[in-house]
Specification:
The complex is a heterodimer.
Chain A: H1 2-12, H2 16-32, H3 48-64
Helix pairs in contact in A: 1-2, 2-3
Chain B: H1 2-28, E1 44-51, E2 57-64, E3 73-79, H2 102-111, E4 119-122, E5 127-131, E6 136-141, E7 153-161, E8 170-174, H3 186-198, E9 201-203, E10 208-210, E11 218-220, H4 234-246
Antiparallel strand pairs in B: 1-2, 2-7, 3-6, 3-8, 4-7, 5-6, 8-9, 10-11
The chains are: A mainly alpha, B alpha+beta.
Protein backbone atom coordinates (compact mmCIF):
# COMPACT_ATOMS: atom_id res chain seq x y z
CA UNK A 1 0.00 0.00 0.00
CA UNK A 2 2.79 2.41 0.93
CA UNK A 3 4.50 1.65 -2.36
CA UNK A 4 1.40 2.59 -4.32
CA UNK A 5 1.11 5.89 -2.50
CA UNK A 6 4.78 6.53 -3.03
CA UNK A 7 4.43 5.86 -6.76
CA UNK A 8 1.41 8.13 -6.95
CA UNK A 9 3.23 10.96 -5.20
CA UNK A 10 6.26 10.53 -7.46
CA UNK A 11 4.06 10.74 -10.53
CA UNK A 12 2.37 13.85 -9.22
CA UNK A 13 5.80 15.42 -8.85
CA UNK A 14 6.69 14.41 -12.41
CA UNK A 15 9.24 11.81 -11.26
CA UNK A 16 8.23 9.09 -13.66
CA UNK A 17 11.34 6.98 -13.16
CA UNK A 18 10.88 6.91 -9.40
CA UNK A 19 7.22 6.00 -9.90
CA UNK A 20 8.18 3.20 -12.27
CA UNK A 21 10.77 1.79 -9.88
CA UNK A 22 8.34 1.93 -6.99
CA UNK A 23 5.58 0.30 -8.98
CA UNK A 24 8.01 -2.39 -10.10
CA UNK A 25 8.90 -3.03 -6.46
CA UNK A 26 5.19 -3.28 -5.68
CA UNK A 27 4.65 -5.81 -8.46
CA UNK A 28 7.61 -7.86 -7.27
CA UNK A 29 6.18 -7.90 -3.78
CA UNK A 30 2.78 -8.96 -5.08
CA UNK A 31 4.39 -11.75 -7.07
CA UNK A 32 6.42 -12.92 -4.10
CA UNK A 33 3.51 -13.20 -1.71
CA UNK A 34 0.85 -14.51 -4.11
CA UNK A 35 -0.57 -17.83 -5.12
CA UNK A 36 -0.92 -17.85 -8.86
CA UNK A 37 -2.69 -21.18 -9.04
CA UNK A 38 -5.99 -22.43 -7.65
CA UNK A 39 -4.27 -24.18 -4.80
CA UNK A 40 -2.03 -22.43 -2.37
CA UNK A 41 0.13 -24.98 -0.59
CA UNK A 42 2.49 -22.44 0.93
CA UNK A 43 -0.43 -20.55 2.43
CA UNK A 44 0.73 -17.30 0.92
CA UNK A 45 -1.21 -14.22 1.95
CA UNK A 46 -2.55 -13.27 -1.48
CA UNK A 47 -4.91 -15.58 -3.33
CA UNK A 48 -4.78 -16.07 -7.08
CA UNK A 49 -7.73 -13.67 -7.45
CA UNK A 50 -5.94 -10.96 -5.51
CA UNK A 51 -2.81 -11.59 -7.50
CA UNK A 52 -4.68 -11.16 -10.77
CA UNK A 53 -6.28 -7.90 -9.74
CA UNK A 54 -3.15 -6.33 -8.30
CA UNK A 55 -0.51 -7.68 -10.64
CA UNK A 56 -2.16 -7.30 -14.03
CA UNK A 57 -3.65 -3.90 -13.32
CA UNK A 58 -0.31 -2.75 -11.92
CA UNK A 59 1.49 -4.10 -14.94
CA UNK A 60 -0.98 -2.33 -17.22
CA UNK A 61 -0.23 0.93 -15.48
CA UNK A 62 3.51 0.37 -15.52
CA UNK A 63 3.51 -0.21 -19.27
CA UNK A 64 1.83 3.14 -19.77
CA UNK A 65 4.03 5.27 -17.58
CA UNK A 66 6.18 7.71 -19.55
CA UNK B 1 -60.02 -1.44 29.70
CA UNK B 2 -59.33 0.88 26.79
CA UNK B 3 -55.62 0.76 27.63
CA UNK B 4 -55.66 -3.04 27.63
CA UNK B 5 -57.31 -3.08 24.21
CA UNK B 6 -54.67 -0.70 22.86
CA UNK B 7 -51.89 -2.86 24.24
CA UNK B 8 -53.47 -5.95 22.77
CA UNK B 9 -53.79 -4.31 19.35
CA UNK B 10 -50.21 -3.14 19.51
CA UNK B 11 -49.00 -6.62 20.38
CA UNK B 12 -51.07 -8.03 17.55
CA UNK B 13 -49.60 -5.51 15.13
CA UNK B 14 -46.08 -6.43 16.21
CA UNK B 15 -46.77 -10.13 15.80
CA UNK B 16 -48.31 -9.56 12.38
CA UNK B 17 -45.38 -7.47 11.26
CA UNK B 18 -43.05 -10.26 12.33
CA UNK B 19 -44.86 -13.07 10.59
CA UNK B 20 -46.11 -11.21 7.51
CA UNK B 21 -42.92 -11.25 5.41
CA UNK B 22 -42.58 -15.00 5.92
CA UNK B 23 -46.18 -15.56 4.91
CA UNK B 24 -45.67 -13.50 1.75
CA UNK B 25 -42.51 -15.35 0.81
CA UNK B 26 -44.09 -18.76 1.20
CA UNK B 27 -47.05 -17.59 -0.86
CA UNK B 28 -44.74 -16.52 -3.67
CA UNK B 29 -42.68 -19.67 -3.46
CA UNK B 30 -45.46 -22.20 -3.37
CA UNK B 31 -44.07 -25.71 -3.31
CA UNK B 32 -45.94 -28.79 -4.44
CA UNK B 33 -45.77 -32.03 -2.46
CA UNK B 34 -42.35 -33.61 -2.90
CA UNK B 35 -40.63 -30.36 -3.84
CA UNK B 36 -37.77 -29.01 -1.76
CA UNK B 37 -35.90 -25.73 -2.12
CA UNK B 38 -32.24 -26.57 -2.87
CA UNK B 39 -29.73 -25.25 -0.36
CA UNK B 40 -26.64 -23.60 -1.84
CA UNK B 41 -24.32 -21.95 0.64
CA UNK B 42 -20.60 -21.24 0.98
CA UNK B 43 -19.83 -22.21 -2.58
CA UNK B 44 -16.18 -21.61 -3.32
CA UNK B 45 -15.14 -20.21 -6.66
CA UNK B 46 -11.43 -19.93 -7.21
CA UNK B 47 -10.06 -17.94 -10.10
CA UNK B 48 -6.73 -17.96 -11.88
CA UNK B 49 -5.58 -15.56 -14.57
CA UNK B 50 -2.84 -15.84 -17.14
CA UNK B 51 -1.79 -13.31 -19.73
CA UNK B 52 -0.62 -14.42 -23.17
CA UNK B 53 1.84 -12.50 -25.33
CA UNK B 54 -1.11 -11.61 -27.57
CA UNK B 55 -2.51 -9.47 -24.76
CA UNK B 56 -5.38 -11.89 -24.13
CA UNK B 57 -6.17 -12.87 -20.57
CA UNK B 58 -7.43 -16.33 -19.72
CA UNK B 59 -9.69 -16.44 -16.70
CA UNK B 60 -10.09 -19.94 -15.32
CA UNK B 61 -12.50 -20.88 -12.56
CA UNK B 62 -12.81 -23.83 -10.26
CA UNK B 63 -16.14 -24.23 -8.47
CA UNK B 64 -16.60 -26.23 -5.29
CA UNK B 65 -20.01 -27.10 -3.91
CA UNK B 66 -19.69 -28.01 -0.20
CA UNK B 67 -21.01 -31.39 0.92
CA UNK B 68 -23.34 -29.66 3.38
CA UNK B 69 -25.49 -28.30 0.54
CA UNK B 70 -28.43 -30.02 -1.08
CA UNK B 71 -28.44 -27.97 -4.29
CA UNK B 72 -26.70 -29.13 -7.46
CA UNK B 73 -25.19 -26.29 -9.49
CA UNK B 74 -26.28 -26.33 -13.10
CA UNK B 75 -25.89 -22.72 -14.22
CA UNK B 76 -23.02 -20.30 -13.68
CA UNK B 77 -23.02 -16.71 -14.94
CA UNK B 78 -20.49 -13.92 -14.74
CA UNK B 79 -21.38 -10.30 -15.36
CA UNK B 80 -19.65 -9.12 -18.54
CA UNK B 81 -21.48 -5.85 -19.13
CA UNK B 82 -19.16 -3.11 -20.25
CA UNK B 83 -18.42 -0.73 -17.37
CA UNK B 84 -19.53 2.85 -17.99
CA UNK B 85 -16.73 5.03 -19.32
CA UNK B 86 -14.47 2.15 -20.21
CA UNK B 87 -12.79 1.84 -23.58
CA UNK B 88 -14.03 -0.49 -26.31
CA UNK B 89 -11.91 -3.60 -26.29
CA UNK B 90 -10.88 -5.39 -29.42
CA UNK B 91 -12.36 -8.80 -30.07
CA UNK B 92 -9.40 -9.80 -32.22
CA UNK B 93 -8.28 -13.28 -31.29
CA UNK B 94 -11.26 -13.80 -29.00
CA UNK B 95 -12.76 -17.13 -29.95
CA UNK B 96 -14.82 -19.69 -28.10
CA UNK B 97 -14.43 -23.40 -27.69
CA UNK B 98 -16.66 -26.38 -28.39
CA UNK B 99 -20.21 -26.31 -27.04
CA UNK B 100 -20.38 -22.52 -27.20
CA UNK B 101 -23.93 -21.55 -28.17
CA UNK B 102 -23.00 -19.33 -31.10
CA UNK B 103 -26.43 -18.60 -32.52
CA UNK B 104 -28.15 -17.76 -29.27
CA UNK B 105 -25.15 -15.69 -28.17
CA UNK B 106 -25.23 -13.75 -31.45
CA UNK B 107 -28.94 -13.17 -30.89
CA UNK B 108 -28.25 -11.92 -27.37
CA UNK B 109 -25.60 -9.53 -28.68
CA UNK B 110 -27.97 -8.11 -31.26
CA UNK B 111 -30.91 -7.65 -28.92
CA UNK B 112 -29.63 -7.01 -25.43
CA UNK B 113 -29.10 -3.29 -25.90
CA UNK B 114 -26.29 -3.21 -23.35
CA UNK B 115 -22.66 -3.32 -24.48
CA UNK B 116 -20.74 -6.37 -23.33
CA UNK B 117 -17.02 -6.92 -22.93
CA UNK B 118 -15.90 -9.24 -25.78
CA UNK B 119 -15.22 -12.65 -24.29
CA UNK B 120 -14.60 -16.15 -25.53
CA UNK B 121 -15.88 -19.10 -23.54
CA UNK B 122 -14.60 -22.60 -22.97
CA UNK B 123 -16.49 -25.13 -20.94
CA UNK B 124 -15.85 -28.34 -19.05
CA UNK B 125 -16.97 -31.59 -20.70
CA UNK B 126 -20.74 -31.89 -20.85
CA UNK B 127 -21.27 -28.22 -20.14
CA UNK B 128 -22.28 -25.61 -22.70
CA UNK B 129 -21.44 -21.91 -22.69
CA UNK B 130 -22.93 -18.71 -24.05
CA UNK B 131 -24.02 -15.14 -23.49
CA UNK B 132 -27.30 -14.40 -21.77
CA UNK B 133 -29.84 -11.59 -21.93
CA UNK B 134 -28.91 -10.74 -18.34
CA UNK B 135 -25.54 -9.50 -19.61
CA UNK B 136 -23.67 -12.49 -18.31
CA UNK B 137 -21.32 -14.97 -19.89
CA UNK B 138 -22.26 -18.32 -18.56
CA UNK B 139 -22.05 -22.04 -18.50
CA UNK B 140 -24.78 -24.62 -18.18
CA UNK B 141 -24.72 -28.30 -17.46
CA UNK B 142 -26.02 -30.20 -20.48
CA UNK B 143 -27.61 -32.96 -18.42
CA UNK B 144 -28.42 -34.19 -14.96
CA UNK B 145 -25.28 -36.25 -14.20
CA UNK B 146 -22.92 -33.39 -14.96
CA UNK B 147 -24.15 -30.81 -12.46
CA UNK B 148 -21.83 -29.90 -9.62
CA UNK B 149 -23.27 -31.97 -6.81
CA UNK B 150 -22.70 -31.31 -3.11
CA UNK B 151 -19.18 -32.40 -2.23
CA UNK B 152 -17.92 -32.01 -5.80
CA UNK B 153 -15.55 -29.56 -7.51
CA UNK B 154 -15.38 -28.77 -11.18
CA UNK B 155 -12.71 -26.92 -13.15
CA UNK B 156 -12.60 -26.05 -16.84
CA UNK B 157 -14.76 -22.93 -16.79
CA UNK B 158 -12.64 -20.60 -18.88
CA UNK B 159 -13.14 -17.19 -20.37
CA UNK B 160 -10.72 -15.27 -22.56
CA UNK B 161 -10.79 -11.51 -22.93
CA UNK B 162 -8.61 -8.48 -23.45
CA UNK B 163 -10.23 -6.93 -20.39
CA UNK B 164 -8.18 -6.46 -17.24
CA UNK B 165 -9.17 -8.25 -14.04
CA UNK B 166 -11.83 -6.30 -12.17
CA UNK B 167 -14.58 -6.57 -9.61
CA UNK B 168 -17.55 -8.46 -11.01
CA UNK B 169 -20.47 -10.49 -9.74
CA UNK B 170 -21.20 -14.15 -10.32
CA UNK B 171 -24.48 -16.04 -10.15
CA UNK B 172 -24.80 -19.71 -9.34
CA UNK B 173 -28.06 -21.49 -9.87
CA UNK B 174 -29.03 -24.74 -8.19
CA UNK B 175 -31.33 -27.10 -10.08
CA UNK B 176 -34.90 -27.10 -8.84
CA UNK B 177 -36.57 -30.48 -9.08
CA UNK B 178 -40.16 -29.85 -9.90
CA UNK B 179 -42.93 -32.31 -9.14
CA UNK B 180 -44.26 -33.36 -12.56
CA UNK B 181 -47.74 -32.09 -13.38
CA UNK B 182 -50.02 -33.53 -16.09
CA UNK B 183 -50.53 -30.24 -17.85
CA UNK B 184 -48.59 -27.13 -16.87
CA UNK B 185 -50.75 -24.04 -16.57
CA UNK B 186 -49.49 -20.47 -16.84
CA UNK B 187 -49.71 -20.35 -13.08
CA UNK B 188 -47.43 -23.39 -12.77
CA UNK B 189 -44.91 -21.80 -15.10
CA UNK B 190 -44.92 -18.56 -13.10
CA UNK B 191 -44.63 -20.51 -9.85
CA UNK B 192 -41.51 -22.33 -11.03
CA UNK B 193 -40.03 -19.15 -12.51
CA UNK B 194 -40.42 -17.40 -9.14
CA UNK B 195 -38.73 -20.30 -7.37
CA UNK B 196 -35.85 -20.46 -9.83
CA UNK B 197 -35.32 -16.74 -9.49
CA UNK B 198 -35.33 -16.92 -5.71
CA UNK B 199 -32.80 -19.71 -5.42
CA UNK B 200 -30.09 -18.07 -7.52
CA UNK B 201 -27.04 -17.37 -5.39
CA UNK B 202 -25.29 -14.10 -6.15
CA UNK B 203 -21.83 -14.19 -4.68
CA UNK B 204 -20.87 -11.10 -2.77
CA UNK B 205 -17.38 -9.76 -2.42
CA UNK B 206 -15.85 -11.22 0.69
CA UNK B 207 -14.16 -9.31 3.45
CA UNK B 208 -10.44 -8.68 3.39
CA UNK B 209 -8.35 -10.85 5.62
CA UNK B 210 -5.23 -9.25 7.01
CA UNK B 211 -2.14 -11.23 7.80
CA UNK B 212 0.24 -8.61 9.12
CA UNK B 213 2.83 -11.14 10.22
CA UNK B 214 3.58 -12.36 6.74
CA UNK B 215 2.94 -9.31 4.64
CA UNK B 216 1.86 -5.73 4.72
CA UNK B 217 -0.54 -6.43 1.89
CA UNK B 218 -4.09 -7.41 2.55
CA UNK B 219 -5.19 -10.82 1.47
CA UNK B 220 -8.49 -11.95 0.10
CA UNK B 221 -10.73 -14.70 1.25
CA UNK B 222 -11.40 -17.08 -1.59
CA UNK B 223 -14.75 -18.24 -0.34
CA UNK B 224 -17.35 -16.97 -2.74
CA UNK B 225 -14.86 -14.60 -4.29
CA UNK B 226 -14.06 -15.62 -7.82
CA UNK B 227 -11.76 -13.48 -9.81
CA UNK B 228 -14.61 -11.37 -10.99
CA UNK B 229 -15.90 -10.71 -7.53
CA UNK B 230 -12.74 -9.74 -5.83
CA UNK B 231 -13.33 -8.34 -2.43
CA UNK B 232 -13.47 -4.66 -1.75
CA UNK B 233 -9.94 -5.03 -0.60
CA UNK B 234 -8.02 -1.95 0.42
CA UNK B 235 -4.96 -2.65 -1.66
CA UNK B 236 -7.04 -3.63 -4.68
CA UNK B 237 -9.26 -0.60 -4.46
CA UNK B 238 -6.31 1.68 -3.90
CA UNK B 239 -4.71 0.32 -7.04
CA UNK B 240 -7.91 0.63 -9.03
CA UNK B 241 -8.37 4.18 -7.82
CA UNK B 242 -4.78 4.89 -8.65
CA UNK B 243 -5.19 3.57 -12.17
CA UNK B 244 -8.43 5.46 -12.67
CA UNK B 245 -6.84 8.67 -11.47
CA UNK B 246 -4.17 8.52 -14.09
CA UNK B 247 -5.78 6.47 -16.81
CA UNK B 248 -9.43 7.36 -16.84
CA UNK B 249 -9.97 5.55 -20.12
CA UNK B 250 -8.76 2.23 -18.77
Amino acid sequence: MAKLLEAKRALEKGQATVAKNTLNAFLNEVKAVSCQEFNCPGNKPLTSEAYALLYFNGQFLLERLP
Amino acid sequence: MKKEVCLFLMALAIILSLIWPGATASQELRLLPGEVLPKLENVQVKGRVTLAASGIFTYAYNITNPATNTGEIWLVGIDVTKPAGSIDLSSEGITSGPRFLRHSSALVLSTIGVPLVPVGLFSPSNWTSGLTVRGTAGWGSSDDPFMIRPGQSLAGFEMISRGLPGIRSINLEPFFRQTPVDEATDEDVERVKAIEKAIVVALKPSAPRLRPRTSSLSSFSTTSSPLSTIAANKAGLRLMGFIRAFWPSS
